[in-house]
Every structure is written in structure tokens, then in C-alpha cells.
């Protein structure tokens, strides 16, 4: 039986896999600058699944939070500020320093940090912050009762916004804006609300599961061999990733009792935030020592070792940051308890 506990573990493994794909995407983008063998191009195309998988998972977890925990305004947004916003702003300052070789000091510098323009991947967090605000206030409007109807409206909103409405305000791309992802995010809500039916159906109908697996695999192969680059918000890519998400859910559900990777809140998010810092730092060090880095990217094994080093360093930093945030949470909670006791006295 697929319990909620097992589903959440499966989702954590999907997030870990997705964060690795994001690292692969930025790594292969660097390799393509020097060399473009088929395996690099293929990995670069496949890596685009990472962001969409994370988007669907975010919608799923948000729906779970609203349904199971029913957080109040203060509780919900305090958690987002501690785990999402503050690390996001810190990473923005870090990337400004690494790329500009100095700390931000102008209004424009700080505006770029807030808008997620100092790192190529920070647009995603800027968009997710918009989503959390909208999702909270729509939590009693978009519900399980009407999602099967509203999801088509959200599909239209995403398509129309991308193709006809977006104008690049404040120098922001379509990827920065919530309407570009609104359908993808609420597909996560839909999957959560109908998780038992969807996953049980796939589990009990192996032929259908094999068909879905085959279609998602064929789609991945198509994206690899196609001359067209399908960006993450392209609806064809979104639907293909949706099928892959369901296949991965079932796949990891079958493995959760055998895998013993401890769930760590914020781990995948911190990998996502800070992996590019290691890409920048490693490249700078290699330039200082060797004068150039093309010799690494032109060798397959060196390239793969370089990728492994980037991911391991990112994951190690993420684990340390998770522990730091937990300690800060405990400190904050103890201070709150102490203040309440003093008031009562």
C-alpha cells in the first residue's frame, strides 16, 4: 500500500534526482562552450527535466502542507522566510560578489538581488516566492472539488502569458514570472489531491504503467535528437515531464523500503541555490593554476569527475546549511519560549 509517508519519501528522492539534473544542466552548459560531443548535448537536453520536476514537486508539497498542516498566515510565511527567502537573498549577494568581484552597494545591485538577476538560476526562486503568496490566498478557492476544471484555465493562462502577454518588464524574462509556471505548479496540486487514485491505478495496471514509461522515454529521446531546444516552460516539455514525474513516483515508491537516504528539509533547495557558486569557484581556480580549462572538458572522464566534484561539494555544503538552519530554528524557538515564560511571570 502506498502511504503518505512513502509518497513523501518518493518525492524527496525525485527532488534529489532533480537537483542533480539542475547541476548537470549548468555543468554541461559550461562544457558546450568548449566542446559539444553527443553525450554532452544529450545530458544538457535531459537536464531540463530537473526544473520542471522540482516545480511539480513544489506544487505537490504545498498542497500537502495546506491539507495536512493547515498553517496560519504567520506560520506559513515565517517558514518560507527562514527556509526560502533568506537563503535566496544570501545566495544573491554571493553570486553578485563572485561575478562582480565586490559586494553590492547601489540600489540597482540590491534590486537585482531581490529580482533574482545575479545568478542565472535564481529566477526560479523569485517565481516560487510569487507562487507561495498566490497559493496561500487561493488555497480555499482552488480546491480538489474544482481543480479538474480550473487546471484547463491555468493551462490557457500559462500558454497565453508566454506567447502574448509578457513584455520583459524590469528586464525580467518569462521564466521569472508566475503565470509562466502556473499550470505546471498546480499540476502538483492535482497529483496530490488524486494521488491515491493515480498511483494505485498505475500500480494495479502494469500495462498502462509500461505504456506511460515508454511514452516518457520516447519523449526524452525525441528531445535529445531534436534540433529544437525545448525550454522548461514549453507545454510539450511540461506534459512529457509530467509523465516522467508519475513514473518516477511509482519507481521510487517501490524502492523506499530499500533506500535509506535520510530526509533533510531544505537539502535539495540548498543544492539548487549554491551549486553554481562551485562552478564559478572551480573554474576561477583552474584558470589561476592552469591558465585554461578546455583540457578538462575535452576529456570525458575528466569532465565526469569534475561534475561529480561539483555535486559532492554542493551536497556537502547543503547538509551543513541544513544543520545550521535547524540550530537557528531551535535557538529561535527557545528564545520564544523564554519570552513567553517571562511574560507569564
From TrEMBL:
Keywords: Acyltransferase, Cell membrane, Membrane, Transferase, Transmembrane, Transmembrane helix. InterPro entries: Acyl_transf_3_dom. Its main location: membrane. GO terms for molecular function: acyltransferase activity. It is a multi-pass membrane protein. The chain crosses the membrane at residues 12-34, 46-66, 78-98, 121-138, 147-166, 178-195, 207-225, 231-255, 267-290, 302-325. Residues 13-318 form the Acyltransferase domain. It is found in: Cell membrane. PANTHER family: O-ACETYLTRANSFERASE WECH. Belongs to the acyltransferase 3 family. This is Acyltransferase family protein. It comes from Brevibacillus choshinensis.
Amino acid at each position: 500500500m502506498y502511504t503518505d509517508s512513502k509518497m513523501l519519501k518518493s518525492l524527496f528522492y525525485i527532488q534529489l534526482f532533480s537537483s542533480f539534473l539542475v547541476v548537470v544542466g549548468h555543468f554541461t552548459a559550461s562544457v558546450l562552450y568548449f566542446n559539444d560531443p553527443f553525450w554532452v548535448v544529450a545530458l544538457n537536453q535531459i537536464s531540463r527535466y530537473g526544473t520542471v520536476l522540482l516545480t511539480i514537486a513544489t506544487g505537490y508539497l504545498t498542497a500537502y502542507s495546506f491539507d495536512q498542516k493547515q498553517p496560519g498566515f504567520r506560520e506559513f510565511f515565517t517558514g518560507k522566510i527562514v527556509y526560502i527567502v533568506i537563503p535566496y537573498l544570501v545566495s544573491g549577494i554571493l553570486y553578485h560578489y563572485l561575478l562582480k568581484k565586490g559586494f553590492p552597494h547601489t540600489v540597482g545591485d540590491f534590486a537585482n538581488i531581490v529580482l533574482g538577476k545575479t545568478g542565472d538560476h535564481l529566477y526560479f526562486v523569485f517565481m516560487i516566492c510569487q507562487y507561495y503568496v498566490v497559493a496561500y490566498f487561493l488555497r480555499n478557492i482552488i480546491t480538489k472539488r474544482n481543480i479538474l476544471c480550473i487546471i484547463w484555465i491555468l493551462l490557457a493562462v500559462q500558454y497565453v502569458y508566454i506567447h502574448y502577454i509578457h513584455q520583459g518588464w524590469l528586464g525580467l524574462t518569462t521564466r521569472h514570472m508566475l503565470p509562466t509556471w502556473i499550470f505546471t505548479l498546480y499540476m502538483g496540486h492535482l497529483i496530490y489531491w488524486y494521488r491515491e487514485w493515480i498511483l494505485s491505478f498505475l500500480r494495479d495496471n502494469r500495462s498502462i504503467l509500461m505504456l506511460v514509461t515508454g511514452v516518457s522515454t520516447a519523449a526524452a529521446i525525441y528531445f535529445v535528437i531534436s534540433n529544437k531546444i525545448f525550454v522548461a516552460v514549453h507545454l510539450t516539455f511540461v506534459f512529457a515531464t509530467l509523465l516522467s514525474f508519475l513514473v518516477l513516483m511509482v519507481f521510487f515508491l517501490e524502492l523506499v523500503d530499500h533506500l535509506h537516504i535520510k530526509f533533510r528539509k531544505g537539502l535539495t533547495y540548498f543544492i539548487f541555490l549554491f551549486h553554481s557558486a562551485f562552478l564559478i569557484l572551480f573554474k576561477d581556480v583552474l584558470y589561476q593554476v592552469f591558465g585554461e580549462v578546455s583540457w578538462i572538458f575535452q576529456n570525458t572522464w575528466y569532465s565526469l569527475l569534475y561534475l561529480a566534484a561539483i555535486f559532492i561539494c554542493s551536497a556537502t555544503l547543503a547538509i551543513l546549511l541544513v544543520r545550521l538552519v535547524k540550530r537557528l530554528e531551535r535557538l529561535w524557538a527557545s528564545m520564544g519560549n523564554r519570552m513567553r515564560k517571562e511574560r507569564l511571570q
